[in-house]
Write a structure and sequence with these properties.
The protein is an alpha/beta fold. It is built from 13 helices and 24 strands.
Length: 407
C-alpha cells in the first residue's frame, strides 16, 4: 500500500495480510494487518516490525521514505512473532542500531536470535527516547498480553502506539477508523473488536482496567491510538478506550449463548426446547454448533452473552471431544461475569454433563446446576424438561445480569 503519514513525520509502514485465516488457531475471517511506524525525525526510529512473511513489504515501504540504513533506533513493544519476527531482516540492514525494549523482551529476543550481538537498550516505564522533535515515552504493560509488552507514547502529538491493545483483525484498504466507517457500518468494526478482545484479551480484564486508569491518572493527552493490528483510532480514540473499559468491567449482552455439538442429533434436539424456554423469559439466544463453526466464533459468542449453556454429548463416559476442547479453551481465557450450565444426551452410561460441570468449577466459572441429561433421543417429556431448564436458566441470567447494570 505504501507508507501513510499518520502524524507529521510519523508514517505507517506496515503490511496488510488479506489472506490469513488461521492465526495460531484463531480464525481470522477478515484477515489482519501488521502495523509498524517509522518516525522520520533527526534520529530516524522504527517502532515495531511485522510478521516475517512481510519483511520485504515493510522494508519497501521504508525505502519510499528514506534509505533504511539511516534508521538509528528500533523500538520493540512486543516480541510475539507477528510483530517481531522481522527483527533479523531489519537488523541485517542496520546492525548497529539500538533496540529499545523491556528486559523481558530482551530476554525473549535473545532466545529467538541467540548470539545476535545486537545493542539493546532496556527501558522501564517513564524512560524516554528523544528523536529530535519528538519524545518517545515507554510504558510497560506486562501481561497485556505478554510479559514483555510495552506501549510507546509520543507526547508532542498525543500518539499512543499501543501494540496489540485496541487492535482488530481486519484487512482493509482503510488505515483509520473514520476512513473505514465512512463506507462500513459500526457493527462490523465492533464485531471485530469484540472478537479480538474475547479471543486474546479476555483473561486480562483487570489488568486492562488498571492500566487504562493508570494512563488516565498520568493525564496523558491521547489524540490518536495506533495499534499493531487493524485500524488506527484517529477520529475517536475515546470510543475504543470506553469500549475496553466496558469489556474489562463486565460488559455482556443480556442473552444466552447455546454452544453445542452432537453425535446423532440427540443433543441437538434438546437445543430447540431449551431455546424456547429461554425466549419465553424474554431473553435473546444465540446458537453455535461446534465443528460447524470456528472455535474463535464460539469464544466470541460466549463472551458477548451473559449466560452460556453448553450442549455436550457423552462419548466413552466423557465429554464429546469438540465440546471438551471448547471448555478447555475457555478455561485458559478465565472468563469472568458469566454464568454457565450444561445439557446433553448419553447412550448407555452418562458422564459428559458431569464432566462439563467439573471443568466449569475447576476453571472458577459461576455455574447453574443441575444440568439436564437425556438417554438416547429426547422424549416429549424430556423436551418439556429441556424447556423448563431453559426458562430457569434464563431467569437466573436475568437476575445475574441485573448486578452489572450499574457498571
Ligand atoms: Fe499481535 Fe501478541 O501479537
Amino acid at each position: 500500500m505504501g507508507p501513510i503519514e499518520i502524524k507529521p513525520y510519523i508514517y505507517w509502514v506496515g503490511a496488510v495480510d488479506w489472506g490469513v485465516r488461521d492465526f495460531h488457531g484463531y480464525i481470522t475471517e477478515r484477515g489482519t494487518t501488521y502495523n509498524n511506524y517509522l518516525i522520520m525525525d533527526d534520529q530516524i526510529t522504527l517502532v515495531d516490525t511485522v510478521k516475517h512473511d512481510f519483511s520485504t513489504v515493510t522494508i519497501e515501504n521504508i525505502k519510499k521514505l528514506t534509505d533504511p540504513k539511516k534508521i538509528k533506533n528500533l523500538v520493540i513493544n512486543h516480541i510475539e512473532p507477528d510483530h517481531a519476527s522481522s527483527i533479523d531482516a531489519i537488523m541485517d540492514i542496520i546492525p548497529h542500531a539500538k533496540i529499545y525494549i523491556t528486559e523481558r523482551g530482551r530476554k525473549g529476543v535473545e532466545r529467538y536470535w541467540s548470539g545476535s550481538g545486537w545493542d539493546f537498550k532496556v527501558v522501564k516505564t517513564g524512560e524516554t527516547l528523544n528523536t529530535g522533535k519528538y519524545t518517545l515515552t515507554f510504558l510497560e504493560t506486562p501481561m497485556l498480553h505478554w510479559p514483555d509488552s510495552m506501549v510507546t507514547y509520543i507526547k508532542e502529538v498525543g500518539l499512543l502506539i499501543s501494540q496489540d491493545a485496541f487492535g482488530q483483525h481486519i484487512a482493509t484498504a482503510s488505515r483509520f477508523d473514520d476512513e473505514f466507517l465512512a463506507t462500513n457500518p459500526w457493527y462490523e468494526l465492533e464485531d471485530a473488536i469484540i472478537d479480538y478482545y474475547a479471543n486474546i484479551l479476555m483473561p486480562f480484564g483487570q489488568l486492562i482496567k488498571g492500566k487504562i486508569e493508570e494512563i488516565i491518572k498520568l493525564g496523558l493527552k491521547i489524540e490518536m491510538i495506533a495499534p499493531d493490528h487493524g485500524l488506527i483510532w484517529r477520529k475517536d480514540p475515546n470510543r475504543i478506550i470506553k469500549m475496553y473499559l466496558d469489556m474489562a468491567t463486565g460488559f455482556a449482552d443480556m442473552k444466552v449463548a447455546i454452544i453445542y455439538d452432537t453425535m446423532w442429533q440427540s443433543t441437538e434436539k434438546m437445543v430447540m426446547p431449551i431455546m424456547g424456554g429461554i425466549k419465553e423469559e424474554g431473553v435473546d439466544c444465540k446458537v453455535v454448533k461446534l465443528r460447524s463453526s470456528p472455535m474463535s466464533v464460539a469464544i466470541k459468542e460466549f463472551w458477548k452473552a451473559r449466560g452460556c449453556l453448553v450442549g455436550v454429548p457423552t462419548l466413552n463416559n466423557l465429554m464429546f471431544p469438540s465440546v471438551a476442547e471448547f471448555i478447555y479453551h475457555l478455561g485458559g481465557l478465565r472468563p469472568k461475569n458469566r454464568i454457565v450450565g450444561a445439557f446433553g444426551s448419553y447412550g448407555w452410561g452418562g458422564g459428559g454433563v458431569k464432566e462439563a460441570y467439573e471443568y466449569f468449577k475447576r476453571f472458577g466459572m459461576d455455574v447453574f446446576e443441575p444440568g439436564v441429561q437425556v438417554q438416547f433421543s429426547p422424549s416429549l417429556e424430556d423436551e418439556k424438561s429441556c424447556y423448563q431448564f431453559g426458562r430457569e436458566f434464563a431467569k437466573k441470567v436475568k437476575e445475574y445480569h441485573s448486578k452489572f447494570n450499574s457498571l
